[in-house]
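User: Hi! I'm working on a homework problem where we have to compare a predicted structure to a textbook description. Could you give me the structure for the chain below?
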Amino acid sequence: MAEDSFVTVARIRRPQGRRGEVATELLTDFPERFSPGSRVSLVHVVSGRAERKEVELQDAWPHKGGMILKFSGVDSISDAEAIAGWEVQIPAEERVALEGSAVYVSDLAGCQVIERGETLGTIEGVDDRVGTPVLIVRTERGELLIPFAEEICKQIDTERKIVEVELPEGLRELNEGGQKQPQMNADKRR
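Assistant: Happy to help. Predicted structure tokens:
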């Protein structure tokens, strides 16, 4: 499978316990996907190359806003330390089907943003750290930050890679040229 056919559902932070358990940061709205017996990929990128290990999930439980995961073959603190910083991924086709107008954040990457027939730019990322998520759009003049709200994003077609917007007056001039770090490839919905 190609690297872009996987989505990241968690990031391993550190060892948790003595038997190889790890504390993770959740990057999914569906923590129930972490069921014992399921298979996931552990991925670590070094010098632009991805190292991937397929593992079985032995156990999982919520802890302080994240999850504690126990993988087969990771049986000690030193084993767990070796995978700190790695990502937990699943094949994109295994994502939960969304209802209504919900979309996966990772599906927005590469979408063209169009306003009244004019292409404004391409979505590079989504910043969802506080409040309303913001689309990070690369334009010819720099970066454009667009609130990801129904009042602004009128039509979203991730299959055709198009997001039609109706920007509030002055928004374009206000924020082109700013700098944000995109975060993508998450199993989150909006």
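For your comparison, note the following. The longest strand covers residues 49-63. The chain has two domains: 3-94, 105-175. Good luck with the assignment!
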